[in-house]
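Bench notes, afternoon.
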Amino acid sequence: MNAHSNALLIDTAPPTASEPTLLERLAAVADDEVLSEDYACIKARCEHGVRSACIDRPTFGIVLRGAKRLHVKGTEPLRLGAGDLFMITRPCQLDAFNWPDDAGLYLTMTVPICDDVVAAARMLWAQPIAQGGPEVLAVPAQRMAAPLAAWADAMRAGAYGPARSALADMLVQLCAMGHTAVLAPPPPTLAAQIRTLVAAQPERSWRSQDFEHALGLSGATLRRRLAAEKQSLLEVITEARLACALQLLYTTRWPVKTVAARVGYRSAPTFARRFSQRYGLEPAQIGNGA
């Protein structure tokens, strides 16, 4: 057992020749390398940590290879190993540390939960929903075997409707375990709405007028609401671009220069400096660059 794993590791039955295990089904989705809004395969070849990563929406992930530690300020760190499922129940900032396995690869699949999936799960649950609870929780993936296997099979078949239905079933199972707060995400902040817009076109030269038009706000209102959230427009744009860069560094083997250009930086050294200031590590430390 990896020294960085914890008791959440599952005890799986030996695989048979005719039926792949749950992790094998999920790994097959990762091996397809078809990146979409439905999931991302986060890869790394070097031991590293990421500081204050901003998560804007409910997200679940499964550690497929290596080990992971997640930490939200004010809570106990959560240690995960291959076969563990974690759920980020609401927007938060967290620190993450990732360890490759003995073969030198870390792999986690992450899936943002869209509003339609949450709404479908809320209808299926049809019971009171508790507020609060932990920002991050974890269970052995095997406890979600049926919906996870259905999701993996649907994703490989390109059947995104059934895939979303499987995610809704998974949320209902979490509710049955007492985690109903996953169905009550808070309304998005203005900063989160701006980050979503920037994430769609991180290379664009964004200006205040662009957000005012897209969100139906005056410039004064936009600045006032951001100030109430203790944010500035430049900070939010920069954070969104760097978040996009982080995902590209995890999910591609592009060199740092290419990633920098894709998120709107003409200077790779400037990008690397700001990335390091934001996340506490150099872009090359993830170890995926060609």
